[in-house]
Design goal:
Bifunc_inhib/LTP/seed_store; LTSS; 0% strand; globular; single chain; signal; 50% helix
Length: 82
């Protein structure tokens, strides 16, 4: 998810096309790992995630994601993915 860092940290008002492509790939292969970002996983890596921007990313990219209510932490799978 590194192409999305500028957007989800609040340094950009729109996600890049690379970010949206990467988001689509993650949703397809490991959608549960998106929850880690929303559950504070970025802080483990020294990142300050803007929750509002992170939650807006699927809409901004026009990518359908599972409901946030289905989030499960997947720490082992998430390591090294962003």
């Amino acid at each position: 998810m590194s192409p999305c860092l500028n957007y989800i940290t609040g340094n950009s008002s729109t996600p890049s096309s690379r970010c949206c492509t990467q988001l689509g790939t993650v949703v397809e292969n490991n959608p549960e790992c998106l929850c880690e970002v929303l559950n504070g996983g970025g802080s483990n890596l020294g990142l300050n995630i803007n929750q509002t921007q992170a939650l807006a990313l699927p809409t901004a990219c026009k990518v359908q994601t599972p409901s946030i209510s289905k989030c499960n932490v997947c720490k082992d799978q998430f390591q090294g993915k962003i």
